[in-house]
Amino acid sequence: MADQPTKGQKVEEETTSYKEEVLFNSDTLSKIISYLPTVDVLSLALTCKKLGVSNTDEQSVIKKSTNILVQDIATDDQLAALPHYEGESSLADYHYLKLLRAPLTFDQLTGAEFVDSWDKSCVTNSREAQEYGRWETAFSNNILRAGKHYATFDVRGGYRFDLDFASVILGVMRPGQVHQNAKESPFFPDFFRCFSRHMVHGEDNNNSIQCCMYGINSGNCIVSNWRDSTAKRETWEGLETMWSDGEIGMLLDLDEGTLTVYKNGQRLGVMKKGLAGPYCWVVSMHKGTQITLKRGTIPPS
Question: Most C-beta atoms within 10 A of its C-beta, which of 128, 145, 250, 279?
Answer without folding.
Answer: 279
